[in-house]
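Support request from a user on the community tier.

User writes: "When I paste my structure tokens into the form, the page sometimes reloads and wipes my input. The last time it worked, I copied everything first. Here is what I submitted, just in case something in the input itself triggers the reload:"
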């Protein structure tokens, strides 16, 4: 028995009406990275990373923005959190220790500074920064601000060059080596 006349688009308008909401913006940034890489793998809610390619490259996508869905007195500071996390396994639960769980980290900033200009699908309004896990591990932080990410990434990359920059940051010595399993 279905819901007559109801579509998935109706649900989408209800659940994700504003891409300035942190969770919706995060999903969108993950989708943008997924599309840039041409990945056919779908997103796994409990995976320890956000995007995975067919050859096993695991990418964690972190997002931030100046604008939020709520009323603001000033623009938000750009900060990326949750770089380390406890891996989840459905049989054993959470791991005891937090680890860096992706091969590559993409830091995506939605750069619009007014609600009137905000267009979440305009990739020109996004800045992308890419760091390989060895760099993130060496920094040893659980979160990073904008200046730190910029400094260590060597500047941003346009969406059109994102896939190439991600591949260049891949630290795997053996092509096809997969992420640690989330099972």
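"...and here is what came back when it finally went through:"
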């Amino acid at each position: 028995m279905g819901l007559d006349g109801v579509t998935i688009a109706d649900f989408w308008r209800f659940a994700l009406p504003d891409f300035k909401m942190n969770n919706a913006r995060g999903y969108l940034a993950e989708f943008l990275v997924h599309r840039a890489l041409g990945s056919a793998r779908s997103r796994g809610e409990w995976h320890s990373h956000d995007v995975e390619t067919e050859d096993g490259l695991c990418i964690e996508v972190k997002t931030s923005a100046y604008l939020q869905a709520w009323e603001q007195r000033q623009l938000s500071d750009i900060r990326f959190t949750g770089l380390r996390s406890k891996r989840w396994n459905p049989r054993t639960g959470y791991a005891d220790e937090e680890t860096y769980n992706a091969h590559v980290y993409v830091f995506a900033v939605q750069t619009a500074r007014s609600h009137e200009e905000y267009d979440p699908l305009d990739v020109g309004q996004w800045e992308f920064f890419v760091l390989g896990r060895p760099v993130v591990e060496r920094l040893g932080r659980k979160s990073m601000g904008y200046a730190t990410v910029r400094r260590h990434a060597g500047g941003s990359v346009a969406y059109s060059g994102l896939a190439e920059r991600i591949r260049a940051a891949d630290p795997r010595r053996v092509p096809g080596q997969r992420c640690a399993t989330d099972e």
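Agent notes: The reload is a front-end session timeout and is unrelated to the input. The first helix runs from residue 8 to 15. The longest strand covers residues 58-65. Escalated to web team.
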